[in-house]
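Archive maintenance. Older records in this collection stored only the sequence; we are now back-filling the structure field for every entry so that each record is complete. The fields below show one back-filled record exactly as it appears after the update. Entries are processed alphabetically, and Threonine synthase is next in the queue.

ARCHIVE ENTRY
Title: Threonine synthase
Organism field: Chitinophaga horti
Length field: 435
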Amino acid sequence: MQYYSLQNPQHRVSFREAVIQGLAPDKGLYFPMQLPRLEKDFIERLEEYDPLYIGRHVIAPFIGDEIPEHQLKQIVSETLSFPFPLREVEPNVYALELFHGPTLAFKDVGARFMAGCLGYFRKHDPRPVTVLVATSGDTGGAVANGFYNVPGVNVVILYPSGKVSALQEKQLTTLGGNITALEIQGTFDDCQRMVKTAFLDQELQEQYLLTSANSINVARWLPQMFYYFLAYRKIKQWKKDVVFAVPSGNFGNICAGMLAAQMGLPIAHFVAATNVNDTVPRFLQNGQYAPNAAVPTLSNAMDVADPSNFVRILQLFSKSETALKAKLSSYSFTDNETVSAIESVFAEHHYLMEPHGAVGYLGLKQYLQQSPNNVGIFLETAHPVKFDDTMPEQLRSEIHVPEKVKQLYNREKQSVLLPNDYEALKSWMMAVPAR
Ligand SMILES: N[C@@H](CCOP(=O)(O)O)C(=O)O
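Back-filled structure field:
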């Protein structure tokens, strides 16, 4: 499989190069040259297969022979080493819980998969690689955990100061070792812009071998397909058309689901649910892609105004807005609506959602009003404990606190405060010995 830059289709690289570079030299996202079509028989017999086999089978065409089979087997089994339960919340509405991994968010899957691939590719190369990553909350912790102590890899995480939850901050600032956290006085979009600028900086490139661990990197983006296949495996016997509602920030997760559908997974429709950072819902209404400045919300990991992966979604539909709208609806919700949903779902169904999942739930309910014969799954992307400082007060005592979280509270934050200025990032990076 080769990958091309969405800025320049003539620029093509292998999977290995796409993973190591993260972003094309022209700042374009990499996209697969072909979209593999899975055998009908594989989809029809999905429930008979083991989840690890499914993971390997769906990712293999994107890797070809660049990672040997036994190695891929190990990477996938380290990636899918925790459960992905599907819970009925109310009739026809299910939550797919993606937060049972080490950092309690769906990002663990992509981060572990990418760490495995990069670890393999770097094994016989003496030059250390530096992973530059921007986070609005969950990616940072997952990448820190996934790459902690991976030989030959250093990680620099940029996060917006004061805009992530207390627990998210602990997850990304307390490991030390090969993980460094930079606290940027700006928004997630600023952090992401600084990271993307660094990839184009010749001077930095001479000192560092840089890559990205955001979903702009194909090894972070592609394994997010796994959720949809694993969920479908459980629901195959349902006789209704299935809709997935995905709480969306940088749009990597939903984009991977849409890719799974194009590979043959029978998903009737997707709902991209956002908070008031609503660039995509507005685009689907008026055809104008016009990001506003990002606004802080309770669902902070989705405080993204300019989602990187939307260009990949457009590409999946050959840039046809009509084809895209037939498959994707998108709605935005306020914090008040989010809190009301958390409260009412707990009161009526005794299921505790956190703010991101609640936005997904609201999106699903809105879509089901116009399409009542469908059955819907919303993705619960993080554990409520990650937002224990912003969850409705009367529900905080209902949050189960996992053992691994208790240990984190006592660890000390280590971060470097930097202004929202690319030159500040560059000076900091040039001043430290090559990482
Ligand atoms: N929601 C993210 C923002 C970055 O998304 P990514 O999937 O591209 O890493 C976060 O939690 O940091």
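Update note: Residues 135-140, 214-215, 249-250, 252, 301, 304, 308 surround LJ64HWYM (CB under 6 Å). The two ends are 30 Å apart (CA to CA).
Entry marked complete.
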